[in-house]
Automatic annotation (TrEMBL):
Compartments where found: Cytoplasm
Binding site for ATP: S26, G27, G28, P29, D30, S31
Protein's UniProt name: tRNA(Ile)-lysidine synthase
Gene behind this protein: tilS
GO molecular function ontology, one term from the record: tRNA(Ile)-lysidine synthase activity
Residues in Lysidine-tRNA(Ile) synthetase C-terminal domain copies: 385-457
Entry keyword annotation includes Iron: no
């Protein structure tokens, strides 16, 4: 086994001499075999080994004893030990997460912290070839996304170093034999024997059937995983280039938008990957109920002939088509509380909820107007002014228009996205007549009267 693992390490450049290697050790056969294996090459490779072990507080005294076992073996093998006890039950309750997700998040937080503290080069895991096969089978059953079939990565960037998995080239049975050969008596988690967990079901029921047909299935699957990963890496790099050129990402709160025609001008394979890049940016951890159905809905929305359509994704993510734009944003309480009404004195100013400012002053001359300014005769306005959001039935008239027009129809004509309409600033006089649909329409033309007093409004978006 040692020869196979060393060939695997060298083939994939998993280690370098004089490196600091943190080893994730649970006390089970896989991680104990890994710790022992690395110990046998420690002197030759001049490695600094540190064992990391975590008690998740999920199995009471038993999991505490696992931690103590690893510490005891590390003393025997002259390996530095760092242990931690993390409160998974409390964390999963406070964050409303499943047990496995909560445990993994806290565990990796601990690992990341230790990587930085020790300035480590590698974090080694004991995943083996059977783990890889089980993972690929589970993903085959659960997902329709081809990028998910690249399996467990042999190595990847993590913290200030890399995660490595030197045992992906061997089987569970190989590691059990290794433990027997070197007198290692690992701790056994009883939950590994149950079949009510999905992975255990594949391990106990499905994998043995495959091995009857191909005893070397782990090697076949590992090669498949590596080739798929290479293809995925290339496509991912191209998709990132596409997203950088096409998608506008925004933070605080997170959102993304793009021109639909420009997005669709790229190959469908890149579009799909760009879609997943967007989701990975928006979500802090993809929701479990996010599936290929949402991907189908996303691309159906792009192809929809309607100008304004909206669909819902998990965790209140809104995907909205606004004419030639597609916008993805989270519907929060902040979005729901869009209505406002501020009284604007002259002179004076009001600050809107999004940080924009509307300023009112008197002037003796007509200055150059822009979309952000409004000037009219002071005598034509009933004070004070009001700055508010739209209301049902709002209508507006302006010079040259016969009668009036619904504000709703103005928004539609000017292709204003649905998400922006309810917070759009409208300036009215004290009688409720709309003077200015800010940035879009003005009631009054540029004044031509001379030697009189003018009212001037200025809209400043600031950092909006």
């Amino acid at each position: 086994m040692k020869e196979a693992v060393m060939d695997f390490i060298q083939k994939h450049n998993l280690l370098r001499p004089n490196a600091t290697v943190l080893v994730a050790v649970s006390g089970g056969p896989d991680s104990m075999a890994l710790l022992h294996f690395l110990m046998t090459i420690r002197e030759e490779w001049k490695l600094k080994l540190i064992a990391l072990s975590v008690d998740h507080q999920l199995r009471g005294e038993e999991s505490k004893q696992d931690l103590e076992y690893v510490e005891q073996v590390c003393r025997q093998w002259n390996i530095r030990f760092i242990g931690a006890s993390i409160d998974v039950p409390s964390y999963k309750k406070s964050e409303q997460l499943g047990t496995q997700i909560a445990a993994r998040r806290l565990r990796y937080n601990f690992f990341e912290k230790q990587m930085h503290i020790e300035q480590a080069d590698y974090l080694a895991f004991g995943h083996h070839g059977d783990d890889q096969t089980e993972t690929m089978l589970m993903r085959l059953v659960r997902t329709a996304d081809s990028s998910s079939f690249s399996g467990i990565p042999i190595k990847r960037e993590f913290a200030n170093g890399k995660i490595i998995r030197p045992f992906l080239c061997v089987t569970k049975q190989d590691l059990q034999r290794y433990c027997e050969k070197y007198g290692i008596n690992p701790r056994i988690d009883p939950s590994n024997e149950a079949t009510d967990y999905t992975r255990n079901y594949f391990r106990k029921k499905v994998l043995p059937l495959l091995k009857e047909k191909n005893s070397n299935i782990h090697t076949t699957i590992q090669y498949l995983s590596e080739t798929l990963q290479a293809d995925q890496n290339y496509m991912e790099a191209e998709a990132k280039k596409m997203a950088k050129n096409v998608v506008e990402f925004q933070g605080n709160p997170k959102s993304a938008q793009f021109d639909i025609e420009q997005f669709q001008s790229h190959a469908s394979a890149l579009q799909r990957r760009a879609f997943h890049l967007i989701l990975n940016y928006l979500y802090d951890g993809l929701p479990e109920n996010l599936s290929y159905i949402h991907e189908e809905h996303f691309f159906s929305l792009l192809a929809n002939d309607k100008s304004n359509v909206q669909i819902d994704f998990p965790r209140h993510l809104k995907v909205e088509k606004a004419y030639n734009k597609l916008i993805l944003y989270f519907q929060t309480d902040e979005h729901k509380m869009l209505e406002y009404h501020e009284v604007l004195s002259v002179p004076g100013k009001v600050i809107l909820p999004d940080g924009a400012v509307v300023t009112a002053t008197y002037s003796n001359e007509v200055k150059t107007q822009s979309n952000h300014t409004y000037i009219c005769l002071a005598s034509h306005v009933a004070l004070p002014l009001h700055v508010r959001t739209r209301r049902e039935g709002d209508r507006m008239s302006w010079n040259g228009l016969k009668g009036s027009k619904k504000v709703k129809d103005i928004f539609i004509d000017l292709k204003i996205p649905l998400q922006d309409r309810n917070s759009w600033p409208i300036v009215t006089d004290n009688k409720g007549e709309i003077l200015w649909l800010v940035g879009l329409k003005k009631r009054d033309p540029i004044p031509s009267d001379q030697g009189t007093s003018y009212l001037q409004l200025y809209y400043d978006q600031g950092n909006v």
